[in-house]
Amino acid sequence: MTKTAKLENLNPVAVKIAHISDLHLSGWLDRRQISAFDRLLEHFTIEGFDHIVISGDLSNGASTADWKIVKDALARHGLYHWEKATVVAGNHDLTNLEEEMRFYNALNPFPAFRMTTFRKKLAEFCSFFSELITGNGSPSFPFIKVLNYPPLSLAIVAVNSVHPWFPADNPLGARGEISSGQLRALVQPDVLDSLKERFVIGLCHHAYRVYGTDALIDQAFDWTMELKNRDEFLNTMKLISAQLVLHGHFHRFQTYMADGIPFVNGGSFRYDVRRYCRLDIEGKGNFSQKFAFLPEKEKGGRSRLTA
């Protein structure tokens, strides 16, 4: 579950992390999005980011071909390596809603069959991106990456938050739940010991907070998108001393606090291809976070920075 690497870092003061989410790619004909993704990865390479995090929904329709687009793009930019990038699955990576809602599936009286299919899809995702998850050919959730840079030791603690589609409990396939087994695994004594003295980043797809208002229409939307056991997840993040948590799912670029822990929503690359989350983590454990923009292209191919 835990793997460690000792890495070089060009900046003796801080480690630079780029976080994006919700690409929602729709095949090779989605050329504008693929081109924009290439440009974003090129920017990350030029800027010298130490690590890239993608918090789910790489595909819009649970397509292995879309996963391959992401894998190939990362490889083109020298980022498809365990120490360079981390990905987790989103609900659109594991659930084809159109397929699930077809008549013969919607009336399927055996939820166990659906759960078996879901687990196979999750295993397929883990195997496909094994180099970025465990790197040892036996991928699984939860997993922990320990990246030792000169300024600090960083631990990325990733869980799967995608929950299978069910007609009554999860009709849009967008509700999430982190299995109790994953949460128990993270608070075992040996795991807690391995995280001591490290800068711990929690990672999942689903948002801890969606709207959270008294408006009935927003409450209904919250229910379709919510992380069902969010309080248990938050308690686990506190027990492992997470300094922040990264997620996606709710397409809003935002930072908010939950019981003293900063949560960062990576928004959606699909809807804003120039915006991303930047983390600068200093050796003493302090960090700064902002939502940065790609430089705009001027005539002649030059770039200029925008606020």
Describe the protein's topology.
Elements lengths: L1 E5 L7 E7 L10 H17 L3 E4 L9 H13 L8 E3 L3 H4 L2 H4 L2 H4 L4 H18 L1 H4 L9 E6 L4 E6 L21 H7 L2 H7 L3 E5 L12 H10 L4 H10 L4 E4 L5 E6 L2 E6 L8 E8 L4 E7 L2 E2 L5 E2 L3
Parallel strand pairs: 1-5, 2-3, 3-4, 6-7, 7-8, 8-10
Antiparallel strand pairs: 2-11, 5-6, 9-10, 11-12, 13-14
Question: Which short descriptors sum up this protein?
Answer:
Purple Acid Phosphatase, chain A, domain 2; 307 residues; five-stranded mixed beta sheet; alpha/beta; 11 helices; seven-stranded mixed beta sheet
Give a summary of the structure in a few sentences:
With 307 residues, the protein is of the alpha/beta class.
Overview of this protein structure:
By secondary structure, the protein is α/β, with parallel strands linked by helices. The protein has helices spanning 31-47, 64-76, 91-94, 97-100, 103-106, 111-128, 130-133, 180-186, 189-195, 216-225, 230-239; strands at residues 2-6, 14-20, 51-54, 85-87, 143-148, 153-158, 199-203, 244-247, 253-258, 261-266, 275-282, 287-293, 296-297, 303-304. It has a single domain, classed as Purple Acid Phosphatase, chain A, domain 2 (4-Layer Sandwich), CATH 3.60.21. Helix content is 32%, strand content 23%. It has a seven-stranded mixed β-sheet, with helices on one face. It has a five-stranded mixed β-sheet with strand order 4-3-2-11-12, with no helix packed on it. It has a two-stranded antiparallel ribbon with strand order 13-14. The protein is globular, with a radius of gyration of 19 Å.
